[in-house]
Amino acid sequence: MKFSYEPVCLKPKHTFKIAREEVEGDKFENVIIRLEHEGVTGWGEAAPFLIYGENQATVVAALETFRPLIEKWRDPWKAEKMMAELDGALEWNFAAKAGIDAALYDIQGKIAGLPLCSMLGLDPGDTPLSTFTIGIDTPEVVRSKVREVLDCPLLKIKLGGPADLEILRVIREEAPKASIRVDANCGWTPHKALAMIEELVDYGVEFVEQPLPPSEVEGMRWLHARSPLPLMADESCERLHHIPACVGQFDSINIKLAKCGGVRHALKMIGCARAHGLQIMLGCMLESSVLITAAAHISPLVDFADLDGAVLIANDPFSGMRFESGRMALPEGPGLGVIPR
Prior knowledge:
Layout lengths: L1 E9 L17 E10 L2 E7 L9 H15 L8 H11 L4 H19 L3 H4 L12 E3 L4 H10 L5 E5 L5 H11 L4 E5 L6 H12 L3 E5 L7 H10 L4 E3 L9 H4 L5 E5 H4 L2 H13 L3 E5 L5 H9 L6 E2 L12 E2 L2 E3 L2 E3 L9 E2 L1
Parallel strand pairs: 4-5, 5-6, 6-7, 7-8, 8-9, 9-10, 10-11
Antiparallel strand pairs: 1-2, 2-3, 12-15, 13-14
Helix pairs in contact: 1-2, 2-3, 5-6, 7-8
């Protein structure tokens, strides 16, 4: 199988800032991955985040480690075995593996002549609404950002900064009918979180994502027992084996392809979360339409979606899933259905 990749620099339309400083920036360095089998091209994307121990350089190093294995592959339908080979060659590096996984699914769909969602027996009309993310900023800048997306019925608000309540007040003034979900990105302490969540009730917030750092296990149990709003795990639930521990701490989990290793791992996590009575959101990093579209194809299986990553960037190198006032419209082409611009 032919294999190549291209480092890319994705530029957000606005400086992206959350409660964790290592994620703030005006550029995000991803890697576009290309596999080719008998003239059929499969596209994938690695979207590394430093908080998970990956960056563009580690992705490139991992891909070079995987190269001799990938170039020996002959049958794309043996993808489960192929991905297990990569796990055996190199631990971790889940963003890199997610990109290869997406490219394999793209090839399979193109050979079969079916979109990925159809290959999995899913109805493309069952995609949930997706949130549009408003990052941490001054109240004045937040007001301007909200005015740009007044047609979006769901907003995800990044909190954990010095002006949280003022930001919420501004958002409610500008978008009084929008549904609001809050993501604190580990930015609070247990008692601060409870006080904030009690305030959030008055703003009509639906749920709160990752209020405390993953290390605060007992703090999360204490908070979960007292919170008037549902709580969602993100940084506390990276992969399959983290799900059982979320019971008693959270009501739902946020699955991201770049965080868990790709579509095939996301599908396993969805089944496990259902078995544990947890609701599920599909989320994203700052990604192009390649990885966003891969996640959108399996979104009919989940309760919530936060797949706006490609909409947040100004230089998306691909077309794919269309984001229409929060509604996700999947491409009709086979595989992922993404097309280079």
